[in-house]
Amino acid sequence: MKIAVYGTGGVGGYFGGRLAEAGHSVTFIARGDHLQAIRKQGLRIESIKGDFHLQPAQATDDPAQVGPVDAVLVCVKSWQVAEVAEAMRPMVADDTFVVSLLNGVESVDQLAAVLGRERLLGGVAKIFSFIGEPGVIRHIGHEPTLTLGELDGVASGRLQRLADALETSGVKVELPQSIQVEIWKKFLLTTGWGGLGAISRAPVGVLREEPATRPLIEACLRETEAVARAAGIALPQDIVERTWAFIHSLEPAGTSSLQRDIAANRPSEIDAWNGAVVRIGQKYGVPTPTHDLIVRALVPLERRARGEIDF
């Protein structure tokens, strides 16, 4: 397959790298020092599943240079979606499909508003990975898995082609009955402790055991569950208990991408995580006081990262 990976961070760099290593034509859309390093020295993946090095690696910051592809894997930050949806148009032919691997529950609709809902596949990336340094992706936890699905839940040839390409590249693939439910499951997990970690600067092992923070995780989980049900998402009845079990399985030193971005004074996905819980809750009349407090507490840091205030 001919694939473009829009956003070469921990998710795009790893899964795109595996596809390229297996012989697929993959072009990475990247920027800044990361792009320059990939151009000069290739893309190196340091992984608990085995290291590998793509040298050379096809990389650019201009989608127009790539031309039409079979599939675009969208792996950028949620606040970049509107810009990216427009920028990828030169890569989108009549039969190109676009796979959203973004965090949050609103990105699919945002991409569909620009590119057409018929082009979109939903996806959930399950992996702990990040840019270790320019040109290097570090995968430190979780069996690398992509959960994929058509938005209407119907099996399709394009979905199966992508799944086959990934599986032959050494990536575990899940094809659930409802990708929407899976997207909300991950949303429940990330909003359960990600924003709280950004405030406290504590890793998940501390958050889940500390008597002061454990009830806050529970409150976040219950609020997001209530919002999901109000939105018509058929989450399992025991979803909070299942999510707690997964939280307890995480590496104690683990931190969320949201937490790492805020700690590094970078723009974060707070609006698409806890902010979305508040926003969707308001739409359906569901109170979300814990998420609202987390968002308000992080606003000053977010505004500083975006250059709106200085302190």
Q: What does this protein structure show overall?
A:
With 311 residues, the chain is α/β, with parallel strands linked by helices. It folds into two domains: 2-177, Rossmann fold (3-Layer(aba) Sandwich); 181-305, N-(1-d-carboxylethyl)-l-norvaline Dehydrogenase, domain 2. The protein contains twelve helices and ten strands. Strands 1, 2, 3, 4, 5, 6, 7, 8, 9 and 10 form a ten-stranded mixed beta sheet that branches. Strand 7 (92-100), helix 4 and strand 8 (120-133) form a beta-alpha-beta unit. It is globular and about 50 Å long. The N and C termini lie far apart (48 Å). The mean pLDDT is 96.
Give structural attributes.
311 residues; alpha/beta; Rossmann fold; 12 helices; 45% helix; 22% strand
Summarize the structure.
Helix content is 45%, strand content 22%.
